[in-house]
Design brief:
The chain is of the alpha+beta class. It has three domains: 53 residues; 137 residues, Immunoglobulin-like, CATH 2.60.40.420; 135 residues, Sandwich (Immunoglobulin-like). 19% of the residues lie in helices and 37% in strands. Strands 12-11-14-19-16-17 form a six-stranded mixed sheet, with no helix packed on it. The longest helix is centred in the first third of the chain and has 36 residues. It is globular and about 50 Å long.
Length: 353
């Protein structure tokens, strides 16, 4: 009876959020149409004018411990030293710790984390590097670190399962190049992953990819009342963050997105990009073959590299193409700007002498 009551409350809350989003969309869409008819699309195409403003977006999330905009391009290359055989040794530190995080304005979640944040740090290296990952479990439950990719089975993160206070060093050669993941592999696996014990693991090819603006995007969801169903969805943890704080990019600038799906309780997640198409490199392990599309559907643990340029200035919406996910937090904007407009924003408005 108690569980039934919790589920009813959850459904009611999800329904309310979707209804409020729909109402806002109705009125916002009318305002946008009127502005477009007057030739003022760029000025009117704010998130609010687009009508995507459910109740979860009111107020700001504290980003002092985790800033989704900064996370996009934070890469941890570890502490590097040169070995006698010419290889590079990279050493990293991961600490499992229980932390309360804010996933939407005023909505908190008791997370299991690597280094106090969700997702954990983006570990980056080059194919052939020797990696040493020093892991300490400072949390209340047993944990491990399982890396995707190729490595000896004793370094796979199934065993040893570290009890609170224990430490272990994973050591292996980074291969193959591509976009990979790391996450805890202790049962119940769905709870440890859902609670936040995951991160992105990038292995660069020996010959670097062409220069581009590089961004890491992790699709995730949060079951805030523990009924086995997500109430909040996001890319990079904070619902609606890139709606309220669009990602600034340059018109014509090559953009490379490292996209990963770590959503639990839903079989698939997706990304759709508006007003543009992207080249999709599956798992990032092939430099030549790609698909040209604007939507990709991914199961949990699947990850791909997306490359594109935005040809015209303006707000380009991106979101899950499961409408429910978008209405509950998983959407945002790229704000494509010309060099002149970005310089003006940086230096502020011109004042006449």
């Amino acid at each position: 009876m108690e569980d039934h009551g919790r589920n009813s409350l959850s459904l009611s809350r999800r329904s309310w959020l979707k209804i409020s989003a729909g109402l806002a969309s109705l009125f916002g869409g009318a305002a946008l149409f009127g502005a477009r008819s007057q030739g003022r699309y760029r000025q009117a195409a704010t998130p609010e004018a687009l009508g995507i403003h459910p109740s979860m977006t009111v107020g700001e999330v504290d980003t002092s411990r985790f800033d989704p905009l900064a996370y996009l391009s934070e890469f941890d290359y570890g502490r590097a030293t040169k070995l006698a055989d010419g290889r590079t040794l990279r050493e990293y530190t991961l600490i499992a710790v229980d932390t309360r995080i804010e996933v939407a304005s005023g909505v908190y979640f008791d997370a299991m984390t690597y280094n106090g944040r969700v997702p954990g740090p983006t570990i980056r290296c080059t194919e052939g590097d020797l990696l040493r990952v020093h892991f300490t479990n400072a949390a209340r439950h047993a944990h491990t670190v399982h890396f995707h990719g190729t490595h000896p089975p004793e370094m796979d993160g199934l065993f040893p399962q570290l009890r609170p206070g224990e430490s272990f060093t994973y050591e292996f050669e980074a291969r193959p190049f591509g976009l990979h993941l790391y996450h805890c592999h202790v049962m119940p696996l769905k709870r440890h992953i859902h609670k936040g014990l995951y991160g992105v693991f990038i292995i660069d090819p020996p010959k670097p990819r062409p220069p581009a603006r590089e961004l890491v995007m992790v699709m995730n969801g949060f079951d805030t009342n523990y009924d086995g169903e997500n109430e909040v969805y996001a890319v990079n943890t904070v619902a609606f963050h890139y709606q309220k704080h669009p990602i600034p990019v340059k018109v014509g600038e090559p953009i490379r997105v490292y996209l990963a799906n770590l959503t639990e309780f839903d079989p698939v997640n997706s990304l759709h990009l508006h007003a543009a198409m992207f080249r999709l490199y599956r798992t990032g392990t092939d430099l030549e073959h790609y698909e040209l599309t604007d939507t990709v559907l991914m199961c949990q643990g699947e990850r791909h590299i997306l490359e594109f340029t935005l040809e015209r200035p303006g707000l380009h919406l991106f979101h899950a193409h499961q409408s429910e996910f978008a209405e509950l937090g998983w959407l945002g904007f790229f704000d494509a700007q010309t060099a002149e407009s970005m310089a003006g924003a940086q230096h502020g408005p011109h004042r006449a002498a």
